[in-house]
Amino acid sequence: MGVMVAVEGLDGAGKATLVAALADAAVRRGASVATLAFPRYDADVHAGLAGEALHGEHGDLRGSVHAMAVLFALDRADAAAELRAARDAHDLVLVDRYVASNAAYGAARREEDVDGAFVAWVHALEIERLGVPAPDAQVLVRVPGEVAARRVRERAAADPTRTPDGYESDAALQARCAHVYDQLVERAWLAPWSVVGAEEGYAAVTRTAESVVAERLVGRSSGDIGSGSSVRSDTIET
């Protein structure tokens, strides 16, 4: 069985860049890799509804912290079987956003910290009730809020279809979310964490990614790495 690593961070932090670097580093070590990004707006009805709500549709749905969190949780629950199958078939499964994202953003919206009721509720809902598989490790891409916000704006300018949603455009929310993420790291919530600073650029992220991959795959014999499949990096199809 492989290991599953969840990559977390603010909108615009550079999570996709880190996932790509982690996948490349693992493949160079001879590992097979699968990747999946949440929310799956185009693949799951729950995520699709949440995405539409974030852009002002469905009345007051976006105003309910718990309703939005349930939609994101159901998206992951729908993908749980694919995630377990990927972990059985690959050495490394990389997930762009996962359960901790629900905890951090929801707590931030309610202006709670890690000890508030919302973080515990997310764990009870996703892990205990819905059976979403817990990751083996988590990585926080930590960047200053202004850097993340600038990247969101630049992404929107480059792609007119990427209009910032209600979370991405809320600077105060992003700042509170960053604080909750730091608390989740300090508590080792859900699984052990590593922290990288993406503001240093792709080369630095790649170096950090390589060390993270080495740590995650350490102790596995060369016969285990890549066994059962060709060495590759796959996107999980859902």
UniProtKB/TrEMBL annotation:
EC number: 2.7.4.9
Top-rank lineage group of the source organism: Bacteria
Family to which this protein belongs: Belongs to the thymidylate kinase family.
Protein name as catalogued: Thymidylate kinase
Recorded GO MF terms: dTMP kinase activity
Function: Phosphorylation of dTMP to form dTDP in both de novo and salvage pathways of dTTP synthesis.
The keyword ATP-binding is assigned to this record: yes
Pfam families according to UniProt: Thymidylate_kin
UniProt entry keywords in alphabetical sequence: ATP-binding, Kinase, Nucleotide biosynthesis, Nucleotide-binding, Transferase
Catalysed transformations (reactions): dTMP + ATP = dTDP + ADP
